Amino acid sequence: MPLHFSHEEFQQRQAVTVASMQARELDGLLMFRQESMYYLTGYDSFAYIVFQCLYLHADGRMTLLVRPPDKYVALYTSTITDIRIWQDGIDDPHSLLRDILEEYSCRGKRIGVEYDAFGLRGHDALKLTAGLEDFCSLEDASDLITLQRVVKSENEIAYVKQAAILTDQAFALGLELVEPGAFEGDILAAMQAEILRQDGDYPGNEFVIGSGPAALLGRYTSGRRYLDQEDKMTIELAGVYRHYHACIERNICIGPVPVKLIKLYEVALEGMEAALQVMRPGNTNGDVYDAYARCCQQAGLEPGHSACGYGLGTTFAPSWIDWPFLAKNGDLVLQANMVFFLQTILFDNEEQLIACPGQTVLINDQACQVLSNDRCDLIIR
Fold first, then answer.
1. How far is it, in rounded angstroms, from Cα 172 to Cα 330?
2. What is the pLDDT of residues 239-293, one digit of tens each?
3. Taking the model in full, what pTM does it have?
4. What is residue 1's predicted lDDT score, i.e. its pLDDT?
5. Quick check: is 1 in a domain?
6. How many Å apart are CA 235 and CA 186, to the nearest integer?
7. Which one, of 307, 304, 309, 335, lies nearest residue 320 by Cα?
8. Final residue of a domain: which of 149, 184, 212?
9. CATH number of the domain enclosing 358
């Protein structure tokens, strides 16, 4: 059984979750976020593309409802012992889930639901709610485990740091290939291969690579191009270890560097340094954004977005973005062992330029630590 944490750590996490449920007067929790299932039990699957649910009762007992193939995945990867099956074309999983709740004497009880989950499609959410309307009271508890996950254990931090090492190693190999005439596909292949070679995982979403006009997108799109003699490139990648992510984002300029890009990048780096200064316990995620935004405005520029980063941790497809965003008006108080991806983006739309340095940052007891050993400076080839 490839458990990546001890039974004791899983039990501690489950106990904290149960205590949070009791504080909200919840008698049970229906989990649809794969991150929650992995966090509490180690269950590691992409079965959330169809209906599956992990139920946690107020006394700590758990039952997993999945399709037949995932029974064996759960037995292999998790601490779950009570696994129920639903079969395509034969069973209605919503009815089976109601039967499970009946076994737990949940009639008339208050049950939390992770409605905000990629693993609970709108169609299924409607059927779930309608099917339990006369049975129990459902409460949105999407944030219950998410709030718990945002502060990492020491073992989780060790995985994040290993992911950061993989990120640096992968980017170094990819950067070696960046030159006029280079094919973006070769750069991507070198980076992803290195992470897998070092026992890393696939990321929650595709690496972002864009050159020429696509350097401004900040999104993965299908289709590769060859680099021109004079070109600009943006690369955003995440090293991943045991599903824990560490990201960096870098800008590369091939050939002469526009004067405006140099200025843009200087302000972006100043904004990053200002944000890092306030990434410490007691400040809020909104304070981080405000520090970045002030630097932009003092330079006569507008912030690139209404957020300058987001949480990182163990996430599954379709995205490595975790809660919360480093956003304007954010009120989450930062604590030690939170992990964020800080990116200070600036655009010059007239010249079609972007500066978007990005780093993975760990909040420590007194300040913060950038986990990448690679500098954020504009890279010139």
1. 34
2. 999 999 999 999 999 999 999 999 999 999 999 999 999 999 999 999 999 999 9
3. 0.96
4. 59
5. no
6. 13
7. 309
8. 149
9. 3.90.230.10
